[in-house]
Amino acid sequence: MKKTNSNYKKLEPIIKALDDKPGVYQFFDEEGRILYVGKAKSLKKRVASYFNKDKSVGGKIRVLVKKIADIKFI
After folding, report:
1. Among the four residues 43, 61, 64, 69, which has the most C-beta atoms within 10 Å?
2. CA distance 56 to 16
3. What pTM does this model have?
4. What is the rounded CA–CA span in Å between residue 30 and residue 46?
């Protein structure tokens, strides 16, 4: 995975622990505010995809990923 986030070392174990099952994920910033809520058929694949994006991804997603400080899932 590419390191597109300064908090990646903290987030990496969370991403690796995600199940390959359906669920809802939440991205939080440094202050605990929700940045984004999403749903996926495979939590692991979807959440990891944010951190694997290349330069062709729009600026909005890149800015979002840089701000992620915590990830929670249901």
Report:
1. 43
2. 25
3. 0.85
4. 22
Per-residue pLDDT reduced to its tens digit, 8-35: 889 999 999 999 999 999 999 999 999 9
Q: What is the CA radius of gyration of the chain?
A: 11
How far, CA to CA in Å, does 22 sit from each of 26, 28, 32, 49, 50?
14, 20, 24, 15, 17
φ, ψ for residue 34 (rounded to 5)?
-70, 125
Is the separation of the CB atoms in 18 and 73 below 8 Å? yes
Percent of the chain having pLDDT more than 70? 86
